[in-house]
Amino acid sequence: MQLDRVKELLQNVQDKRLLVIGDLMLDEFVWGRVSRISPEAPVPVVEVIRESYYPGGAANVARNVREFVHAIQVMGVVGQDSHAERLKKILEDCGIGLEAIESDPSFHTIVKTRIIARHQQVVRVDRERAQPSSEELQDRCLRKLRALLPDLDAIIFEDYGKGFLQQHFVDEVVSLANRSGKLVTADPNPRNRLTWRGLTAVKPNRSEAFAATNEPWVEPEGNPLQDSALHRVGNELMKVWSPKHLLITLGEHGMLLLDGEEPPYHVPSRAREVFDLSGAGDTAIALFTLALAGGATAIEAAEISNHASSVVVGKLGTATVSPGELLQSFQENG
């Protein structure tokens, strides 16, 4: 992909307005060092040096989009607790709109705490209580969506399977968006058995694709274009979900794009080093959607998404990619 074309697309997306809908989380990182083993149990003792906090889940998708656009909104639910206040403050500081966030006193804000020592994750602690969103909350969100929709160019569903996204709500959002001619994409979660019909694009990873079709896991072939099990699963999802585009992320093997009209297209990974996979899927769906909104073809969007994800996995923590880093990746890797 020519560098001038990438620059053109990045220029096109700056004024696009997106809404990310899904499970909101707060990512906490505890950074420290290990110098001894605990006398109480055979586990390392981590001496804490610092702590840092980032938007997680759907909020991280919005953070990735915000690197490239002037306006981005996020829709989801948080509790009425200190973690919610911290998350909203971080989002506000990032320039992400909060007006579509619902606060529910019965909900506990989801927090994922990762303890890092010597550039490796020692343990992750999850504070969450997955619960389906109520009809009342969904109705409030739909009213907000109707108010926001005229000013939007695209909607991204980010499903972490924590209960916010329910089938009726998803169907209503997709129907409203399609009637208004808006792009709609989704990053699905097989734990939440939703049918993603009528979307512009759906982006599962390889294991999610197998789980969504109830197929047993099959180890990948070296060449994704010759991976018969992967193609069987992908074709089944194209039938069940009927998206215009299906983008399956394959980790170190890159991505496979299916759209029903052209032969499958493989995008090899551009990652030089892999430090942390957390948030890579968030980056992939964010940049794929954003590129489509900016006028990219599906292949161009997949190339941009792949380069962006390759940059992010080379960073520690819940990271994003900047326009400068994305352009540098294309300069260095083609």
In short:
With 334 residues, the protein is of the alpha/beta class. It contains 10 helices and 13 strands.
Strand content: 25-35%
Task: Assign the structural class, choosing from mainly alpha, mainly beta, alpha/beta, alpha+beta, or little secondary structure.
Answer: alpha/beta
> What value does the average pLDDT take?
93
Number of individual domains: 1
Outline type: globular
Give the tally of β-strands.
13
Contiguous helical run count: 10
CATH superfamily, please?
A: Ribokinase
Order of helices and strands: HEEEHEHEEEHEHEEHHEEEHHH
Q: In order across it, which strands form the biggest sheet?
A: 5-4-1-8-9-10-11-12-13
Report the CATH topology name: UDP-N-acetylmuramoyl-L-alanine:D-glutamate ligase
Which residues sit in consecutive blocks of at least 5 with pLDDT less than 50? none
Would you mind describing this structure in some detail?
Helices cover 36% and strands 25% of the residues. The chain is an alpha/beta fold and 334 residues long. The chain has a single domain, classed as Ribokinase (UDP-N-acetylmuramoyl-L-alanine:D-glutamate ligase), CATH 3.40.1190. Strands 5-4-1-8-9-10-11-12-13 form a 9-stranded mixed beta sheet, sandwiched between helices. A 4-stranded mixed beta sheet has the order 3-2-6-7. Strand 11 and strand 12 (255-258) form a beta hairpin. Helix 6 packs across helix 7 and helix 8 runs antiparallel to helix 9.
